[in-house]
């Protein structure tokens, strides 16, 4: 009986071992692939901490569609502080207080049945620099996974600097340097509080709004942003990006 049992176990092992080996190989391949992807992502984020991105996927696509785009990098030190405060006031008032996701804004957006106001500047920067436009769940998942990594490696000032240099302000106009010249004929350092607020006001729909020819709504929204920028400058919510 003992010999029969031994033979039975041996036969069973011989039948199951190849299957287990295949699953083990698949598992190890998946784990290695995940590790490689993670290392590549972290490497790209580390490079972005020190190297200014020359273009983005969306900017490149628009350049091909339009023939060319206006964009020139400008460091944060050469941008009027009121411009940075206006962007934060308009897009992410709690920018200095969260770790990439504004939980309160997300809950409010869900309660209102809208995603308006739920996307932080950190998330938008990740999307603009590393991903693509669109509302697919896969893209959102990538954005959600990369945002904490960017927050961990980049200081808040760097996140805002990159955002200001790659955001779209009009068709074919990217970055605050091109936008300030395009709309007002000035450098970013010379932007007034009203001009900065108007640039921030057109960001949700830059192809259909104008900072130099504002509608009644844009004027009203700009006034709100201007007041908000002054408020966050006074209450300390601009401390993380103002040196």
Describe this structure in words.
- This protein is mostly helical and 243 residues long.
- The protein has a domain at 1-48.
- The protein has ten helices and two strands; from the N terminus they run αααααααββααα.
- It has helices at residues 2-50, 57-66, 81-91, 103-112, 121-130, 137-153, 156-166, 176-184, 193-201, 216-234, and strands at 168-170, 173-174.
- The chain has a two-stranded antiparallel ribbon with strand order 1-2.
- Helix 1 crosses helix 6 (137-153), helix 5 (121-130) packs across helix 7 (156-166) and helix 9 packs across helix 10 (216-234).
- The N and C termini lie far apart (83 Å).
- The model has no long low-confidence stretch (mean pLDDT 89).
